[in-house]
Amino acid sequence: MAVYLEQGEELSPEQLHDPFEQALREGHLVPVCFVSAETGAGIPELLRILVRLMPNPTEGNPPPFLKGTNADAQRVQVASDPDKHVVAHVFKVSIDPYVGKLGVLRVHQGTVRPGSQLFVGDARKPIKIAHLFKLMGKDTAEIPEAIPGDICAIAKVDELHLDAVLHDSHDEDQYHLKPVSFPPPMLGIAIEPERRGDEQRLADTLHKLTAEDPCVRIEHHASVNETVIYGMGEFHLRVLLERMTERYGVRVKTHPPSIPYRETITRPAEGHCRHKKQTGGAGQFGEVFLRVEAMDRGAGFEFVDDVVGGAIPGQFIPAVEKGVRQVLTEGALAGFPLQDVRVIVYDGKHHAVDSKEVAFVSAGRKAFLDAIQKASPIVLEPIMRMEITAPSTSIGDITGDLATKRARINGNSTLPGQRATVTALVPLAEVSEYQSRLKALTGGEGSYTMDLSHYDPVPSRKQQELVQAWRPRSEEE
After folding, report:
1. Distance CA 158, CA 395 (A)
2. What is the pLDDT of residue 473?
């Protein structure tokens, strides 16, 4: 059954009630097609149909809440009763430069009024609702109360966050909804403020963006002093950058994020340094002997004090370790952090007058650099575990393209709807901007996820390029 209206024609009461109700009782779908002018004629009639025929919140089933921790959470069914304890869920957070933080929530149980005191999650301190708003596009209007089924907003409450549960009794402290699974952000771009001194403003703006959008991730790579913002795609990142400029007044420069390479050694070696400096007064003296050993991939770093007989007094051992850790951060081959190395300090010398902490910091640093150069150092690159989902007809093109990116295909599987997945291990340097490539191969129907799997040595040619690029910078410093 369908009702068609010409432009300017109104829906009669008979059309609105009798045929619709009879069709609804008989279990038929009731599509309505309005032929309306650009002025929006027909919208009021459509709204009346929705109000009359759609179920109200008391006729629906509220979502089941969970009580307790994720491991032993129990399902709790709330009731659409305005007289019971308040249970409401914050499903959206927006931050306006003028209004402040605005939490949009739906009331599932109880009644919320201005002046109500509510708890956010398991917080012990309540928040006071000063004003309650209903949303009308970009505008808001204050309302006296919100009952089950109502969607309303609360402004200027810093404690609100996405997925928070508001309640007025400690009996509901552990209530929460099953978290919504959002796709992980894959595409990243490095940003920095255009003007010096805007670093704090940029940090505050990024915090606001992550509070509003659960599909935004911010990472700071300390090794290269780089801030990277991750989003769902090029359009998503463009919208975020425009919002930063127009809403918060923060202008940034962008560039592709650096690849987080690492360095390590491949064989044991020994290093030695005698630091001796004599000025007009007291001098500096410290001598260090140490060994370096390669550890298993991903093991990190280990410092071992194997000095006997007081060759290096105990109070100077931390200074030696400090010098070693300086090299760990700065790198010794191509300027990338060192990992998977064990350093064993086994001997040294000191002077009763001239030995100082600064002397052993310098001696430890130079002895470690000496040992690394003898230990055949190499550069490691991050290998990502990728899972690509695309139409079955595109799988051949995808696997062929991955083969050109030094990928190792682990397998593929079929999915319903003539779709399939491909899993592979791929160097991050080859797929840092893979989204646009996948879009071209699949006509925009493909998607992928990736996470860090492990680190592997880079090809020798690539290592030479990285070493040569770093050497001029290190010489300038």
Report:
1. 47
2. 53
Judged against a pLDDT cut of 70, whether residue 387 lies above it is answered with: yes
pLDDT surpassing 90 at residue 59:
no
Torsion of the alpha carbons at 456, 462, 464 and 465, rounded to the nearest 10: -130
Measured at the CA of 92, the angle between CA 90 and CA 97, to 5 degrees, comes to: 120
Burial class (CB in 10 A: 0-12, 13-18, 19+), 152: buried
Average per-residue pLDDT in the chain?
Answer: 83
pTM score, whole prediction: 0.71
The pLDDT of 287-312, averaged and rounded, is 89
CB atoms under 10 Å from CB of 334, counted, come to 22
Q: Could you give the 3-state DSSP secondary structure of residue 347?
A: strand
Q: How far from 150 is each of 57, 88, 155, 415, 466, CA to CA, in Å?
A: 8, 10, 16, 39, 59
Alpha helices in 218-351 (DSSP H): 234-246, 317-330
CA-nearest of 163, 178, 180, 169 to 73 is: 178
Distance from chain centroid for Cα 118 = 29
Q: 227 near 192, Cβ under 8 Å?
A: yes
- 284 dihedral zone (left: phi>0; alpha: psi -120 to 50; beta): beta
Place of tokens 């105990």: 314
- Position 207, amino acid: H
- For residues 416-444, average pLDDT: 89
Ranges of H-type helices in 309-433: 317-330, 357-374, 395-403, 428-431
Partners of residue 168 on adjacent β-strands: none
Kindly tell me the burial class for residue 127, based on how many C-beta atoms sit within 10 Å of its own C-beta (0-12, 13-18, 19 or more): middle
Residue 299: what are its φ and ψ, rounded to 5°? -75, -20
Map out the domains of the chain with their CATH numbers.
3-54 (no CATH), 77-176 (2.40.30.10), 187-255 (3.30.70.870), 264-376 (3.30.230.10), 381-460 (3.30.70.240)
Tokens 């209004």 sit on residue = 99
Burial class (CB in 10 A: 0-12, 13-18, 19+), 379: buried
Nearest to 416 by CA among 439, 438, 392, 396: 392
Per the listing, tokens 């410290």 go with 286
Q: How far is CA 174 from CA 129, 168, 169, in A?
A: 21, 12, 11
Average confidence (pLDDT) over 177-190: 84
Q: How many helices (H) and strands (E) does the chain have?
A: 11, 26
E strand or H helix at 45:
helix 43-53
